[in-house]
Amino acid sequence: MFKNKKAGERILSIYLFIIYIIVAIGIASGVILFRSDLDVREIEAGILSDKVIDCLVEQGRLKEDFFEEGFDLLAECDFNFKDNTEKYLGEERYAVKVESFYFENKKALKNVEAGKTDLLTYCGLEGEKIPKCNLKELYVLDVLDDKILLKINSAVGKVENV
Amino acid sequence: MKSKKAAIGKTMTWIVATIIILFVIILFVYGAGVLGLELFGGDDSLKESSTKSEQMLFALLNTKFNDKTLTEHLNEEDWEKNLKEIEKEIYEIVKRLPENSKKAGWSLEIGGESFGVIPMQGHSPEKIKEVSFINLKNVKISLLKVEK
Questions:
Q1: What is the rounded distance in angstroms from the CA atom of residue B56 to the CA atom of residue B93?
Q2: Do residues A60 and B53 make contact, with C-beta atoms less than 8 angstroms apart?
Q3: Labelling A35: which of B21, B58, B85, B120 has CA 20 to 30 A away?
Q4: C-alpha–C-alpha distance, residues A94 and B131, integer Å
């Protein structure tokens, strides 16, 4: 009754391997088909712009310090754009430009830049291995209740990581 | 290799199991792709944080209309009458807010009234890209960026 079972186990093990291979192909194909490029620099630039807004604008009003001579955005907002790893040795990898205008007539008021400003020249351009930017524009007031248009343009380099 | 009847039975079971497993894997991989698109896919370029809308709402509330801020107008008992008097000026400012475009526009909602370049009525929640709101004494005010 229980004779000749060796042949049965050998046949079974082939199908077991076939199943392992099918499962492995399924997992691999899922990863290959549905993976996406993980370039998050544009999101990073957006977060940087948000941080600048949080730093410069309080309750809808632009800080008075912004218009002072020698305003240092990095010191005021406690930003550090330098990459101190061995590879980059303190090179800056971010840039921010803040422009202010009168809301009514769009007349320019004051501009402030910080970081590696060369990166900002790539804003508006298409491509993969170039810095990514994010522009945010908002309506704020100054301490005298004048209506101000604020433009914050942030750029992230790190093109070697792409 | 005599008497393989029992082995054939088990083997056939495994063949059927293999086919079922293959089918289930294909179904799950396809389902994961569809779910991924549903939950996270589409055009992400218009989805932004509300830090900007928050500060803009504060700025609008502190903007003066007829020598009083919008907040002061709306905190009075006859705020609806006040609103009627200044609605044109409010509309003029909202219309000129930055990032108003053909694709999306800002709308300021005060009580049930909407000021903006895009009519709010009938907008589904997916069309709202940014939102901030505040409750004053008499009325709720929302600033929304709405996609056309």
A1: 11
A2: no
A3: B21
A4: 28
In the stretch 63-122 of chain B, residues with CB closer than 8 A to chain A read: 63-64, 93, 96-99
Q: Which stretches does DSSP call E strand in chain B?
A: 64-65, 68-69, 104-110, 113-116, 128-135, 140-147
The SS3 of residue B54 is helix
User: Which 3 state secondary structure label does DSSP give A124?
Assistant: coil
**Contact check, Cβ <8 Å, B58/A30:** no
Contact B62, A60 (CB under 8 A): yes
**Number of alpha helices (DSSP H) and beta strands (DSSP E) in chain A:** 3, 8
Task: Give A22's contacts in chain B (Cβ within 8 Å).
Answer: 18, 21-22, 25
Question: Which residues in chain A touch residue B10, judged by CB atoms under 8 angstroms apart?
Answer: 8, 11-12
Tell me whether residues A34 and B4 touch, CB distance under 8 A. no
Does ipTM come in above 0.85? no
Of A133 and A16, the structure prediction assigns the larger pLDDT to: A133
Judged by a CB distance cut-off of 8 A, whether residue B59 touches chain A is yes
Contact in structure between B33 and B120 (CB atoms under 8 Å): no
What's the DSSP call for residue A67? G
pLDDT band of A147, cuts 50, 70, 90? very high
What are A17-73's pLDDT values in tens digits?
888 888 899 889 888 887 766 788 888 999 999 999 999 999 999 999 999 998 999
Cβ separation of B18 and A19 shorter than 8 Å? yes
Q: Which of B15, B4, B13, B8 is nearest to A5 (CA)?
A: B4
- DSSP letter (8 states) at residue B38: H
Cβ proximity of B59 and A61 under 8 Å: yes
Q: Which carries the bigger pLDDT value, residue B47 or residue B27?
A: B27
What predicted TM-score, i.e. pTM, was given to this entire model?
A: 0.72
